[in-house]
Amino acid sequence: MKNPHTGKYDPELEDKDEYNPVTDLYRTANFIYDYYLTSDQQALLGDESHGIMRNLTKHRNRRNGPGFIQAVKDFNQVLRQLKEQGKISEQAKAMRHPSYDLTCHILYQVYSRTVAQEADALNNYIAFSNYVYGEINTILVKEFIEKTNIRSNSVFMDLGCGIGNVVLQVAAQTGCESYGIEIMETPCKYAKRQLREYASRMRAWRLPTGKVHFRHGDFLDVDANDMYSTLKRADVLLVNNYAFDPATNHKLAQLFLDLKEGAKIISLKSFVPKHHKINQRTFHMPESILRVEEYEYFSEAVSWTNNGGVYYISTVDRSRLKPFYEGLYGHV
Known about the structure:
Largest sheet: 7 strands, mixed
CATH class of the largest domain: Alpha Beta
Distance between the termini: 60 Å
Strand content: 5-15%
CATH topology of the largest domain: Rossmann fold
Radius of gyration: 23 Å
């Protein structure tokens, strides 16, 4: 959907819970046109002012069902010819990973077919508990990817992944290993359902899925958590701890002691007290290995409020503790 202020496509304007098949077809055709066709191939379909692309827009806007169906048939006929010539696969291989806009559209297709009709079940939680469900929206996830420099060789984990939207977006945009663990049964069931649909959709779009895994379990229970070994090699962790109580945040901080040097933790609340200082009394605390940066996010970035807020990126940096260990044990 185009933003009325910028005139550009804005995936955040997708109404995820109100599926519209005509709009889905229309957007799909436009994404294929924009990302999978060369300018010469696009000429076979016309543009906004003439030809098949013009007919798609005109009949959709006028709610002319027969006209829109005919325009889709005409579009498919041209596309079928290009596909038989191997032209579509060539463009897909050149793309490697989908753009942010195309990623959002694919995830919209996935969500609308797997979760949207049963989304009310996600509201069955205890208010103000550690199990409050909330989503981080795609525009903020895009920023997370950029700020933490996630690449195809990265390992990403979402601790408390909900229905898995963030895990899938990171995998789609970067091609990295992307893992999620969720303690609540219903969201985890939807995450696995979304993963099956995601794999199918990405194949249809001729795009790599990345390596994606979901687990049902408690990320604090390291003895029963078969993803603990993955956590120790993770490059980036996401912890949506906005509603977590202090005890849970403290237990999480203990887990971070096993993270590798340079690993980054994205959180909605800081794991390091604002006035924390590293000294002889505190250098052994898990908070002392974290170097924290604070960032601002703006409206529509998260599902639980329309207002802006802040998030934190903590980097594991044990080098600052070296002087304190040398004071205890001497130079190594």
